[in-house]
Design goal:
The chain is mainly alpha-helical. The protein starts with 9 loop residues before the first helix and ends with a helix. Strand 3 and strand 4 form a beta hairpin. Helix 3 runs antiparallel to helix 4 and helix 4 runs antiparallel to helix 7. The protein has 2 domains: 219 residues, Transcription Elongation Factor S-II, Chain A (Up-down Bundle); 124 residues.
Length: 346
Amino acid sequence: MQTVFSKFAKNDYTKYPFLKEAAKYLRLPDLRIEDLANSELQEILNRAEERVEEAILYVRVSRNPRRTEDIEILSFTVAILLAAATQSTFIQKRYALAEAKQAYEDFKLEPKEKLLKIAQNFEWKLALNNGERIPYPFAVDFTVYLRNTASLREKKWKLNNRTLTNGKVYLTGNEASRLLAEEVRRHVEKRTETRDLPKLPQRVLEAVERIKKLSTEKIGNTEMESFPKTVTQTAFPPCVQVLYQAFSSGRHLSHVGRFTLTSFLINVGMPSETVIELFKNISDFNLRMTRYQVEHIAGERGSGTRYTTPKCDTLKTHGVCTNPDSLCRSVRHPLGYYRRKMVQKR
């Protein structure tokens, strides 16, 4: 008979503040944005800023038992607000990834029954497998499985490499934890993407600016400063124009050409999903592999490092530099070209 996990404890919500029931355990359930201007709540704002900073620097969100449970739970909500207020896709995705990675480490230590309860929070059809013939402790509905493996590159996640019976995919404990972490990533990322933000107190705005500055330093790409949020194709350098037009028409590009185009588009502000759509024109398009590669370059996967576009000298070496114009002679990097072009257009 399947054991039923009865109830989360408050310390569970400090680890998993994304759970729907977490808000019920707050001592300050009616916290408003304007309240963050009060010095009494400075510790919550400080911890929220720390959460996002840890995500940028380490792609993790630490667990510190010395902090009160209320601060940990409330700071999660405020951290989402800070990430959203930066209006930086990189920061938003990075924060979501960090929360998911830390959740994964915690999930792996939980008993099976608690994982079932966490899965219910996301309306998963996850169950314990008590059958002796299939040596896996969990079984999940294949639709849930497909949704949460779409961006996972390893061959073991392909459906034809799994044990599938009666619409159920069987998982180890670590595999169930990994897919739950992927659910957490998408959940947090979606919450940070809101653009309908209220007026923020000065204390909050100052925290947002510190986070943006840290992100720029971490990325190490000064050319990213001042880039507008709208990508302007007419400002692309000649080499990128050629790559973009070739790719848009479905023509094959070399590995260096693909990396150059992808990293350039990501760094000038094109969302990863839009870049992935561009890849669909290529005959050898593979969604799983393309998503992994694009999001890896964008710093949304793996080490969390965003890759910059190769310098002009490197592109010349690999034969990617094409049709240089007069502006090309005064820059050393494709992103520098784009930035200058954008300044000229103002």
